[in-house]
């Protein structure tokens, strides 16, 4: 299996940055294993590969429009879910991308640090996006841009759209993993640019 972070960052085997990553073998192995479990499971179950890749493309679009991860996950979404759905998801991500994080602190001593920002409601959505996927995209927006606004009713929205408890956990793990992966790839790309400057 190709190391996905190296592939996204364009790091050749045996290069200086590859050796830097080898200095933290457990972190490297855990990142790769997380990718495989979340995006290439032997038994995807009710959280289909098409849904996983669509959520990934949307999440990458919210985080970084120029990231190699966006093109990678968009291509996977096109292959698995079809071009119309991948394009609809990309349009939603581009429309609702914002600087973050923002949200409201519940703790009185931190409320002065609150930063207002929008949430999304995809009940009115493009035709290829199902109600189930729409709820997942709303969850991705919440966890990616304003996680401190998370409330129990957000989980109820997922449940009402047909998400099981296990699938909600996997969905949340997938979104969190992408935030990590995109930042690592961006950091490695910055190191490469610095070394070549």
Description:
By secondary structure, the protein is mainly alpha-helical. The chain has a domain at 47-183: AhpD-like. It contains nine helices and no strands. It has helices at residues 4-9, 16-22, 25-39, 49-63, 68-81, 83-96, 131-145, 152-160, 165-196. Helix 4 runs parallel beside helix 7 (131-145) and helix 5 runs antiparallel to helix 6 (83-96). The model has no long low-confidence stretch (mean pLDDT 93).
Labels describing this entry:
single chain; 197 residues; mainly alpha; AhpD-like; 0% strand; CHP04029_CMD-like; CMD domain protein
Number of helices: 9
Mean pLDDT across every amino acid position: 93
Strand tally: 0
**In angstroms, what separates the terminal alpha carbons?**
32 Å
Uncertain runs: none
What coarse outline follows from CA principal-axis ratios? globular
The CATH topology of the domain at 47-183 is given as AhpD-like
- N-to-C SSE series? HHHHHHHHH
**Strand residues, percent:** under 5%
Output the radius of gyration: 17 Å
Reported CATH architecture of the domain at 47-183: Up-down Bundle
Helix content: 55-70%
The level 1 CATH classification of the domain at 47-183 is: Mainly Alpha
Biggest sheet overview: none
Structural class per helix/strand content?
mainly alpha
Region (Disordered): 105-124
Protein name: CMD domain protein
InterPro entries: AhpD-like, CHP04029_CMD-like
């Amino acid at each position: 299996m190709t190391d996905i972070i190296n592939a996204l960052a364009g790091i050749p085997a045996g290069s200086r940055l590859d050796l830097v990553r080898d200095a933290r073998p457990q972190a490297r192995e855990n990142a790769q294993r997380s990718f495989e479990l979340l995006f290439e499971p032997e038994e995807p179950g009710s959280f289909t590969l098409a849904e996983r890749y669509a959520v990934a493309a949307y999440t990458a679009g919210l985080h970084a429009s120029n990231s190699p991860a966006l093109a990678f996950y968009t291509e996977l979404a096109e292959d698995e879910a079809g071009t119309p759905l991948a394009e609809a998801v990309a349009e939603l991500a581009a429309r609702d991308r914002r600087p973050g994080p923002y949200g409201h602190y519940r703790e009185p001593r931190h409320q002065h640090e609150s930063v207002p920002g929008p949430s999304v409601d995809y009940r009115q959505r493009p035709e290829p996006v199902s109600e189930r996927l729409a709820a997942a995209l709303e969850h991705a927006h919440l966890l990616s841009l304003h996680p401190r606004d998370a409330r129990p009713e957000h989980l109820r929205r997922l449940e009402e759209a047909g998400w099981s408890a296990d699938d909600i956990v996997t969905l949340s793990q997938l979104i969190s993993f992408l935030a990590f992966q995109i930042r690592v790839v961006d950091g490695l790309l910055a190191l490469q640019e610095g070394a070549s400057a």
